[in-house]
Amino acid sequence: MLAIVVWLIGMLVFFFVLFNVIQHALNTSNMAKDLAEIKELLRERAASRAPASPPPVPGDIPELRKIYDRCPGCGHIVEARAAVCPECGLNLS
Ligand SMILES: [Zn+2]
């Protein structure tokens, strides 16, 4: 019985030491430094990025402005000839 308890405690200590050795090796590895550098670069890029402009819509292109229009109700792009907005059902005629 005592032998089993001693063995269990021994294994616990062994795995605790093993875990800490591996964790320390990972934290001080070049890969960890590279990852920290990449994270920092991404954070800087995200902070300096200008707010995204809305994507161009057919209504903003003069040639297509005659064919397409924006629904005054929901802003969905609809054909200028459409009588009803397919998105919200607003009567456009
Ligand atoms: Zn609509």
From TrEMBL:
Protein name: Zinc ribbon domain-containing protein
Residue ranges of every copy of the Putative zinc-ribbon domain listed in the record: 70-92
Pfam family, one: Zn_ribbon_3
Transmembrane segments: 6-26
Keyword field: Membrane, Transmembrane, Transmembrane helix
Keyword match Transmembrane helix: yes
